[in-house]
Amino acid sequence: MCTRVSCLTKKARAISIRPRTKKSEPLDSWDAEEDSILTPEDEEMELDDGEVDGDSVAKVSKKKPPKVEESKSKKEHVNVVFIGHVDAGKSTIGGQIMSLTGMVDKRTLEKYEREAREKSRESWYLSWALDTNQEERDKGKTVEVGRAYFETEKKHFTILDAPGHKSFVPNMIGGAAQADLAVLVISARKGEFETGFDRGGQTREHAMLAKTAGVKHLVVLVNKMDDPTVNWDVERYNECKDKILPYLKKLGFNPTKDLTFMPCSGITGMGIKEQISESVCPWYRGPAFIPFIDELPSLNRNTGGPFIMPIVDKYKDMGTVLMGKVESGMAKKGINLLVMPNRTQVSVDQLWSDDEEVTAVGPGENVKIKVKGIEEEDVSPGFVLCDASNPIKTGKVFDAQVVILEHKSIICAGYSAVMHIHCAAEEITVKALICLVDKKTGEKSKTRPRFVKQDQVAIMRIECSGLICLEQFKLFPQMGRFTLRDENKTIAIGKVLKVIE
């Protein structure tokens, strides 16, 4: 059986994942009044006119979802993104999961092990199941988002193995944008945890990007517990946990509901599929990683809404094949859809869900859709495939509530940065600052600020260099949240309040 890991070039730069919600919780933990980075929602953060665009409310389609045909994936699809600092062991854990669930056969792994030994890289062989191109294998660094999948009795999981190196954060954003569940891998080895967590390490930025991408549940895997410097020591495990917990709380993760810590060893596979034996680790008697994620509550998927799929990547194969994660609605073979923002009508020729050909796809699935009616060069990552009768909104100018996270100087009108929203990355300019928002009370300032600085929250009018697909955050969170990056750093996160033009 082949290792079905398609390594298609990832220029995805999206931020939009369907959050994991329970019915009783608010739709998104940004809206929960917790001690998180973002302000509480006071009566919908709209501008002073307090009105909602008429057509935006009409987004939810009245059409009944089409009848599901036989060849559709039956299990619930969950997308898991592995994030964390470079060398924490993300690809190795991903490869170990593939091996333990039988997705990579023994002979292939033995071949990888032989090849890795020849290059004196024997500890890397598991990561080769996900790092499939030569450059990644030679340097031991993931560049593109590796993809693979595995199944349990209840669910179908897609693994997205994100790059840890800070040069490839835009690629990592693309992976996080498609995930429902994030796994933050931290290394317990002496010195490695500290390097990853200190300012400049990727542990903090990745956790924050996962949060803004809407990942609802975060599993923190404390890896390399078998290392000679650690030797399954409970004190080292607790030290790593206690250092990172305050930061995750500040991001808005709730330790009782959205966070789980687990010790494991990626290279030996302990704590991945089966509980760690008591003789090795008497102090942790919790579940292993795979059984735990299998038992997480089901996601709240929007099957009845209009079809929406942000395009992460595209390629030519006797037609144009578009890749992405379905955010809402259903699509079947033969139906007509629109590619926005250039309003090209296309018809669906073939559908694949994680490399298996199907006749219908639904929300949460990672899919490839072959379409007729558009050339591959006319599509860019960040375009959206959507319902022809109910297309997604497009705009160039919008008002947004923005939290400045980390920026040395002040930001005023005329400031420009790169915005990552779902799968799109676009140059933006701040047109005007409208008001400041008090973090604690949510009250807006009466006067227009001349500038905003670090840790402030502001409502501002933003202009994009081109037309993009977006939606009000309260109507469709996945298409309404974004991050701003400048000089290779994430400087702000925000949400769209209103599309102006």
From TrEMBL:
The gene is 23687788. Residues 28-54 have a biased composition (Acidic residues). The keyword RNA-binding does not apply. Belongs to the TRAFAC class translation factor GTPase superfamily. Classic translation factor GTPase family. EF-Tu/EF-1A subfamily. Its main location: cytoplasm. GO terms for biological process: nuclear-transcribed mRNA catabolic process, nonsense-mediated decay. It comes from Aedes aegypti. Keywords: GTP-binding, Hydrolase, Nonsense-mediated mRNA decay, Nucleotide-binding, Phosphoprotein, Protein biosynthesis. This is Tr-type G domain-containing protein. PROSITE patterns: G_TR_1, G_TR_2.
